[in-house]
């Protein structure tokens, strides 16, 4: 998740730089800056989506760990229980 956060920060910084440059650049570069800004918006969207997916995966892993913890107690209880004699 640190990598996606770094990408998000970098994309945002590049976006700000592109906007600043587009304001100071001459009009002939307007289309090129628009293309760069569009690409940055796409990257920003992908980074946000990846961050949401990572968060969902983290939550799923936490739930799985909780289930394992619950099972561990039951397994230890069964392992330490005295042996049962068969019926019949």
Automatic annotation (TrEMBL):
Gene3D superfamilies reported for this sequence:
1.20.1260.80
The parts of the chain that form a coiled coil are 40-81
Which domain of life does the protein's organism represent? Bacteria
UniProt signal peptide: 1-27
Alphabetically ordered keywords of this record: Coiled coil, Signal
Protein name stated in the entry = Murein lipoprotein
Record organism: Cognatilysobacter xinjiangensis
